[in-house]
Amino acid sequence: MPGPLIYWDDLEVGRVFDLGSVAFDEESIVAFAREFDPQPFHVDRAAAEASMFGTIIASGWHTCSAVMRLTVDRYLNPEVSLGSPGMDEVRWPRPVRAGDTIAATLRCVDKRPSATRPFMGLVWNEWEARNGDGDVVLTMRGMGLFRRRPAV
């Protein structure tokens, strides 16, 4: 299901979008990590228990991917989203563990029209995800390209 039809012109600096939540279980944590980040504390229960984490934890990239899915479902729309030139900052201040449900928000922090492509504008966003205890488990800052509202 695509996100709402929000053109660059409609975005307001300071606006916060509730992206919803996603649950993590050990099976999905291990499956993601086996394919993309097979460090022992992500894929091996005994190694994880012996680590500083004490249990299997999700790869930070798994957390980012889960929040990206929420972003696509609740914020981006294929009619107006034109991709992204990249992320400026990604942080994982606390681990995500099996049984955690994380809730994410996105805040528009800046925007400007494209200097070379009048049909689009640039938007800078900050994401934050928290676990059920309210601890921040992910922060990201990045840029998106959005289509401008067509002239009528």
Polypeptide structure, described:
The protein is an alpha+beta fold. The chain has a single domain, classed as Hotdog Thioesterase (Thiol Ester Dehydrase, Chain A, Roll), CATH 3.10.129. It has helices at residues 26-36, 40-43, 45-50, 60-74, and strands at residues 16-23, 86-91, 101-113, 120-130, 136-147. It has a five-stranded antiparallel beta sheet, with helices on one face. It is elongated and about 60 Å long. The two termini are 27 Å apart. The mean pLDDT is 96.
Briefly, what CATH class?
Alpha Beta
Report low-confidence residues grouped into runs of 5 or more.
none
- Helix content class: 10-25%
Which sequence of SSEs, written as H and E, runs from N to C? EHHHHEEEE
Name given to the CATH architecture: Roll
Structural class: alpha+beta
The strands making up the biggest β-sheet line up spatially as 1-3-4-5-2
Number of domains: 1
- CATH homologous superfamily name? Hotdog Thioesterase
Query: Quick check: average pLDDT?
Result: 96
